[in-house]
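Notes to self after the Tuesday call (sharing in case useful).
The group wants a holo model before anyone commits to mutagenesis around the pocket. I volunteered. Ligand is iron/sulfur cluster. Logging inputs and output together so the record is complete.
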Amino acid sequence: MSLTVASTPANLSEFISGNSSDTKSCDDSKDAVDTSSAYAICPVCPHRCRLSDGQTGLCKARLGRNGHIIPVSFGTLTAIALDPIEKKPLTRFMPGYRILSVGGFGCNMYCSFCQNHDISQVGIDGTYRTEQMSPEELCELATELSKSEHNAGVAYTYNEPLISYEYVLGTAKLVKKAGLVNAVVTNGNINQEILTELLPYIDAMNIDLKVFSKEGYRMLGGDFETVKAFIQTAARSSHIELTTLVVPGLSDSEEDMKNEAEWIAGIDPDIPLHITRYFPKYKMTDRPPTDISLMHRLQDIASSYLKYVYLGNV
Ligand code: SF4
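Result:
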């Protein structure tokens, strides 16, 4: 069974179209902030956007309103599907189960090779189909599917789910209470205070470790130290698996893979690592797919330190 928004007419909203003229990025440009009005600083990720009334954060999913930050993506789903849990990828967590997977819009990083850019690099004015679903409705659907479709719970995925952490938290509490599990697929570029609030309700995570360098993360709009701290904290109370997409010229260094695997093993050598193959996508079309022999070499290097190293997209 595979559910998609397009095939579930109930509550299906119209295509969203809108005027983005009042939407500003929270990048470092000085005119991003109107200091004449009240503002709030978003605590969710290391960008710490300072948002005046009507300004949207860099992630396009959070809005300043009268000195508060509003998660405008709350309950707006752009994708919903019942996926095999291995597809997250989560290979060593409830294998054989499926999981109700949902995504919204926006992201707090801007990878030029993003595989889901049509929902992650756009805001509320994006040309995608949406469905509004409250935490209660999503939990109810997950519970129904657990009875008939071997559904384990809910996975928050596709775009960066934690920029709408209020929705994840609200839903995860209900899902946990219903006896199901919560899984998060995230870039990990999220501050510790948000993570620690969520962790009691999260059973499994797949966390990107996109590149093993400070400079690499800066190019992608993330913070290396924040991501590493996220992984270390998450590993203490949740099942975690990590994913590294091998992008030629960015994250294909054998030396970096050695350092990465060694660092992961320092946390726990049983943490599974998924090394996945890059294919040209979105704005990055100037290089070929990752060389297959390199993929195998990187797997061999990582396997010297880690027990479970999987290749993806090969
Ligand atoms: S979550 Fe969005 S609004 Fe908040 S700091 Fe990060 S990019 Fe800015």
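Two things stood out.
The radius of gyration is 19 Å.
The chain is about 25% helix and 20% strand.
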